[in-house]
Known about the structure:
CATH class of the largest domain in chain A: Alpha Beta
Oligomer: homodimer
Largest interface: A-B, 48 and 47 residues
Strand content of chain A: 15-25%
CATH architecture of the largest domain in chain A: 3-Layer(aba) Sandwich
Largest sheet of chain A: 6 strands, parallel
Amino acid sequence: MGRKRTKSGKIRLAEVAELAGVSPITASRFFRNPEALSVAKRARVESAARELGYVPNLAARALASQRTEVIAVLIPSLTNNVFSDVLRGIYDASEGGRYSIQLSNTRYSILQEERLLRLFLAQKPAGLIVTGIDQTAESRAMLEAADCPIVQIMELGPAPVDMMIGFSHYEAARAAIAHLFAQGCRRIGFVGARMDPRVQRRLDGYVSAMKDAGLFDQHLLVTTATPTSVTLGGTLFADLLGREPNIDAVFCANDDLALGVLFECRRRDIIVPDQIAIVGFNDLEFMASAVPTLTSVRTNRYEMGRAAATMLIEAIEGRRPEQPVLDLGFKVIERQSSLAQRADSQPALSGMAAGRTK
Amino acid sequence: MGRKRTKSGKIRLAEVAELAGVSPITASRFFRNPEALSVAKRARVESAARELGYVPNLAARALASQRTEVIAVLIPSLTNNVFSDVLRGIYDASEGGRYSIQLSNTRYSILQEERLLRLFLAQKPAGLIVTGIDQTAESRAMLEAADCPIVQIMELGPAPVDMMIGFSHYEAARAAIAHLFAQGCRRIGFVGARMDPRVQRRLDGYVSAMKDAGLFDQHLLVTTATPTSVTLGGTLFADLLGREPNIDAVFCANDDLALGVLFECRRRDIIVPDQIAIVGFNDLEFMASAVPTLTSVRTNRYEMGRAAATMLIEAIEGRRPEQPVLDLGFKVIERQSSLAQRADSQPALSGMAAGRTK
DNA sequence: AGGAACGTTGACAGCGCTACCAGCTAAGAC
DNA sequence: GTCTTAGCTGGTAGCGCTGTCAACGTTCCT
């Protein structure tokens, strides 16, 4: 008969109920839907729980209720500053609530993503945040079949699985190039690393803008699958210069690369922006502080994470947003590194071009 | 009698057992301790599980076994590059194994940390990774009482709760200052932000080194509780210069500040290192790429995370390390920004001073 | 006053898995 | 040949909580 499992002396819901003088189920309701209790019992259960230091057993709750209070998050990288901002937004928005975040790293592999998705979905998460719109067909099918709200973040696309928060990398890149055109630049190089889908779309935007102006030239492109870094920015730029010495601007797929380009210019005594203009992407904090200050395309990463988690939690709790797709837009923050006319003026946020798709 | 909960059509362990022609408990054992089964049954269960696409229900497992396979990680910040490296190490080491990572952010508050600790511990994690050695008395007591392995990371201290992996921030700072002394610097400023316990200990190391040399001066210190940033590095340095125009070096509590100082020097046409030497801390990737290249104290952040998770998992599985405290050391990476004699030479990693406490 | 409607409470069973222990078989010891 | 030991397998009984539904008491309506 009975076994001798260590009882562990833990406070269970039954103890709380007993002290409060109610049935266990009433105590249970107190934690899930306090409004359903009479004011008197609510107070009794609350004080009993506090007195005993009750902490619910999540495993038991998950088993009995057939759902968890876990929000699963799939991102491609932990190193990339971009994602740490997004994550901070997600964690901030979930803080204090009942949901806990389960984070996993796909390492930019959609197969890895598929594997993780299968794993997560089996645990019936309350909600899911996935990066981007490029999933395997299998992943896509699992997402469609999942019975929890899902938010896709980082970019926009034609067919959201459920909800979607991002901006158009394509349009953002076009806006950056338009800005360079406005400064009189014509031979604009492109420097990109990693070449994940979002960088690829920035490249597409660059290519289309250049083609529209009749200025596209294959030789202006330097890309690599290598993960991005400041040092790599310098290296790629050196490659580009070796091949095309008379470029007048460089559009970098991210800010690390841009900083690397800036340092390489300094190393070669190339004056920025007089000889070469530089534009980055993301507007990380250091861009405003560099000498010269660096132009970049500002993206709302923290806000994206925050909005994604907030929207997801709302949806989990049954309040679906009236607008399931959210375009957070971007802004070209014009700084010294690309303002040909007034290169020597004060470091200033002299103007901007903002964009919002559709 | 019976209720009508949605059976969800999920594959349970019982289904696998039935298909394999064994009892559920045998199937259960297959997943926990395959060696205990005969080879024949092992193969049968394995193929049955694969055929049905069985995924274990973690909640049921946790409830029945009274323990989870979750490693809880408490770190103070998600933004800080330092922690993203550590985290990457932790995630890499846990990948492919049975343990999942539950991450939480204390925001540099030990009260917040205490709250999270209480929350996590109630769910009986398999293991725990906490940052630093400055916990509240209450937290400390909870950690001591916890019945799972615990690793403290980021620094070393006299009384580990259990295991500990880090290095001496105090000695690392002293080594940085010793390097500057060796370059002939005497009026060495200190720039620090956030002033969390580890930055504080770097400051302590700086102070002690300066006092040892009879060169300490309260006015050489600029610190703030504000979170760190590149821009802030410039601002703090400007403060310092305003007060003490004739300093000959700056030791920055981290690399972001150092980069800000470098930009501020450039803005003011101060030649680095001829007029002022700069030393940072952590050796982030961009330090080697800056112009001039920036000296920094290299810390093994990725390795720290990796070792912490590896050691923790080993301990969880009963293989306690023979050496529970691991000093990962540091290295002063000497670069142009602090090499007075050969400021114009090639960017080189000309030499280094390594340190390991005790 | 009778009945409907509502708000509140509790009994019961079981979510899917594993700890414990007993039993069974085959191999080795004497 | 019997006894012991080891290796493997299975039965039983929950782990702590919640879904379902019935029952209760109260209020409000006609």
